[in-house]
Every structure is written in C-alpha cells, then in structure tokens.
Amino acid sequence: MSETPEGPVHPEPPETPQTDLAVTERHAEPCATRQTDLVPDPAPGSLSTGLDAGFDAGFDAGFRADRRAAELRDYRAAFRAAQLAMAVVDQDGIVVTANDSLGTLLGTEAGALREQAAADLVDLASDGRTWHAYHEVLRGRRSRFRCTRRLKHPDGRSLWAEVTVSPVPDSRSVLLSIADVSDRRELQARLRHLQMHDPVTRLPNRALFFERLSSALEAAAQDTDPPYESDEPHQAHQSHESCKSHQSHESYGYGRTGRIGLCYLDLDGFKAVNDTLGHRVGDRLLAAVAARLTECADSDGYTRSGGHLVARLGGDEFAILVEDSTGTEQLADLARSVLCALQSPFDLGGQRLSVSASIGVVERTAHGTTATALMQAADTTLYWAKADGKARWTLFDPERNAHRMTRQALSSTLRPAVERGEFGLEYQPLVDLTDGAVRGVEALVRWNHPQFGSLPPNRFIGIAEEDGSIVELGRWVLRTACRQARQWQKDHPRERPIFVSVNVAVRQVWDSDLVADVAGILAETGLAPHLLQLELTESAVMGSAGRPLQALKALSDMGVRIAIDDFGTGYSNLAYLSRLPVSVLKLDGSFVRGFQDEEHPNPADELIVEALVQLAHRLGLTVTAECVETSGQAARLRRIGCDTGQGWLYSRAVAPDRIAELIRTEPLRV
User: Fold this and answer.
1) Boundaries of each PAC domain copy (predicted)?
2) Which of 27, 60, 81, 176 is most buried by a 10 A CB count?
3) Beta-strand (E) ranges in 488-614?
C-alpha cells in the first residue's frame, strides 16, 4: 500500500475463484452485489482505518468551507438585490458597503456611499437623544434602536424614512436599514387632520386646541428664568411696553415674552338660529363666523409659533389662542376687532343673519399656569360677559374671581349648614312713627360660617334660592321666628304683643306648600296669625299668578299679613296692586335716603313718597319706611303720614334678648 498527495489507496485483493465468481455474479445481477463484497474489511487499528478517518475530516472541512462561501455569495446577492435600503457600518460609523436600494433612496450610486459617515446620510446627529442611542448601538451597549427622519432627496422632494440600526451577529459591524414610510406618514397626517379638525368650520377642534395650549405651557415651563411679574394685576387698556422689551430679550430670547393670552367666545342666541332655521343654516353660520375669526387672528400678527390659533371648541364656542402675547392691551384689541367683525350681517344663501358674541379675555404669565386653570378663568370671564349684558368682552379680574370662588364655597356648604344648625336670627324693630313704640320686628337670618364668620342674608340668600335650599332654610326661619314672637308674648303678657315679619322667597311658594307650612307652624307655636307678617319682594308679588297668587290669598284669609318689600324698585304696577291680598307697603330705602340732606331737600323725593303713602292709605294699606337713619328723616316721614319706620336710628338688627329689653323700655325716639 502506498500514499499519494490525494490520499491513501487501498491494496488490491488476491485473485481467487470466489472473486471471479463475485465479479461474474456482479455482472449477472448488478443490483444484488455491493462493493464491500469485493474488498475485505481492514483489521481494527490498521493503517487503512486511520487513512479513512483523515479523508472524511478533510472532506467535511472542505465541504463546510465551500458551503460557507456559497452562503456568503447568497447573502451578498440578497443584500444587493434587497428592496429595503441597507448599509453595513463599522464601529466608527463609516459605511463599509451599501446596496443599490440605499443609493436609489438617497439619489446616488451605492459605491459612492462607501467611506461616508452613516449619521450624515440619515441625519442622526440632529438631536442629542438620537445621537446617543446610535452610538450606544455602535459600541455594543444597546441591541438596536429605531427612529424616523425626514430626508431631502437630491431632486428636491422630501421623504420620511424609518431608520433602524442593529448589530450584525458575530461581527463588530452594524446594519443600517432605511424604509421609506412617506405614504404611511401622509396617510397618518390625513387621519390626524380629520381627527383634529372640525368638519363644519375646518378649524382645529378641541383636542388640537388643548394639545397646542399644553405645548405652549410646557415650553414656558422649560424656561428656568421666568419674567418679572408685578404684584399689580394687569388691567385692560394698560400698556406694558417697557416690561415687554425686558422680558422678550433678556428672559426669553428674541420674539418670546413668556406670556399667553386667550379669547374665549360664545355666540349670543345661536340656539334660536338652529331652532328656527334648521341646523344646516346654523352650520353655514358657524363656518362664516369661523372665517371672520380667522381673518381677525391673521391681521393681529404672528409670533414665533406662527399665527394665532383659532379653534372651535364645540357648539357655538370658539377660542383664539395667542402665544407670547404682549399684554392685556393686545388681547383687548383682538376682542374688540372680533366684536366689530361680527357686527356686519351674514349673507347665507339669500338669508341675512345678524349675530353677536360674548368674549372672555384672559392674559397672564405662562410660567406656572396650567391649561385647566387658564380655561377655568376664561370660562368664568365668558360667564361674566354674558351676565353683564352680552355682545361685549370682559377681562378676567382676580378679585371678582375670588368673590366667585367664595360664592361657590358657600354654595357647596349651604345645605349641610342648615342641617348642622349654623344659622341664627337677629331682629330689627319696626317703630310706630307717631309715638315711637315698637310694633313689630323683622327677622333677619345670619349664617355663622365656620370659615367666613357671620354672614348677612345678601351673601347667601340668592345661592339658597338657586339650589333650592331656601325651602328648608325658610321653613326653619319661619318656625324659629314664630316661636320667638310667642315667647316674647309669654314673657311680657301685660305689653301689647308685637308681630314678627319674615321674608319669603317665591321659590318657597312654588316648591313647597307654604300655606300648609304656615298653618302648621302657627298651630305648633301658638302664635296668632295676625302677629305674623310675610314679606315678598315687589317683583315677586307683582308677577304672581296661578299658584303663588292663590297661596297669598289663602294666607291673607287665614289672617296673616302680606307685605311688599322694597316697593318702588320693581314693577310698581299700581293697578295690579289693588287686586293683591296685600296689607303693608315697605318703601325702598332709596326714597328715604333722599331725605338725608335736610338743608337742601329734594322736593321730588318728598312728593313721590307722599303720593305713595296717600295711595296706600286709600287702598287700606299701611306704609313702612326702610333705612331711617336720622331724626330729620323720621320727622319728614311722620309729617308725610308714613306709619312705621325701620333703620339704624332706632336699632340695628339685634339678638332676641335685646328686643325683650326694648319692649320693656319707654318708646323709642321718633
């Protein structure tokens, strides 16, 4: 046996009959004889066995090398032919090789991309966060990262690319792949536009408005040096030019003021347009209003963020957001221009419609302001504009808002306060002007608030009427006053009993059975009906019809006295007065205050009061004058013929024990 460079050779076997037979048989039945029958197996451990093993190992290594080379050729071919743009990048961020798709995407030859910085090709150095993530992948500290970049093609068009960088296995290189997602981005942009814009007016909707507002406030929050803010509140028609210049150039940079403004407007009477002319006309009116608002915003100028944002927040509510505003004067001018623009009638397919708007204006420092707080202030100010008469703009007033917040706090705790017994009564005497005797008292409720102290009725009665708690509170006042009047009568049996006058709101008549309540309380306390007087305001009594009028008549038939409070400030319908079951007129204090100047009296005031007194007496009514503060006023009222007086000349509202003292003493001065 011998060896050759190609490998070991097996020895030939000796010629034997068996071999010939095997050959003959092999030719006769080629499929029945194996080659192993011709060559005897080598003995274990022989040289032939080692040569076989070496041959197999060499063959496997060569096969694997050939296979690997073939795979690499396939990989390179796939890399070059791939539709996805790709490049292999080394540890330094330099392109090693790129495929044709990347060259086509970037408008150049693939070979021209070699030796170029990959970050420059796809703008990975434009922001620090992306640049850091890219380098983390190059250094093997991060498995992959993905970002989206807007690239500029050499032909001038722009395209959106999704860039992915990931390590190549068993290599120090990374694979950069770039997918053109322009179509997807365009579709997403169209869908976002539909999602963020109102279909009727084509304006940004509520979602986009709050997104823009939040972005503006977040940008202001990133400024660590907020502008100087005076303790004085900003007032309308006041210039801040000197402050503006300092803020813009030093604190926030050129073109920035660190302030934000908002005009929040609502169309007056728009519901009537929808109800009478239909929603189609209403929608066309909204679109026309939106166009005029946009014109006003565009004419007001541009800021670093572009033009002012005009948005439809819903229904007939619109908002104009002014970023980097220059002060309240700018917002006031914008609001005035909007009101002026809306004054001209709208021609909608042959129909001419006129519309007005109420605008709430807020302008303040953006630093420290939240979107919720800004919108709450704008909504409150819009409500003020509506309440002040509509078709106007109103500037946010912190002091007025504080009063509103207090009112809200009172409203939320009023009903529980009735249940907790936080209310008390004081009484102010009603004095006979002829002899100075105390004929009666008016019960005045006080709220002993745990936070705000003792509150007079004008601080909470209106709230109680709005939320309905006046019914329960009024019932408590009526019962307490009647019980106290009866107690005075028991304590002073020899004195002439005094009547008690209790104020009643119209809602008590509508929301409760006032007649039944009065009858039950009189029976419970034992007070005679003629010692109870119920006071209603003139506007409430004069407008009474149906159930309220029936209740007043039933109370009068019961023997309860009915008084009209603040007479002369409401309807003053004298003809209607004769048909009401009224016993007493209480003249409003504005008439009596006209008597204060005794040296230069106003003859007209005296003539009016005298005429009212004479008219009341002819109708069988008695007259009480409110707000009597001087003896001169009392003398003139007595001369005119007024029956009783009430005011600080005699006494302020006092506790029940003080009234008991007045009953025992001599008549008060008249």
Assistant:
1) 145-193
2) 176
3) 499-503, 532-537, 561-567, 584-587
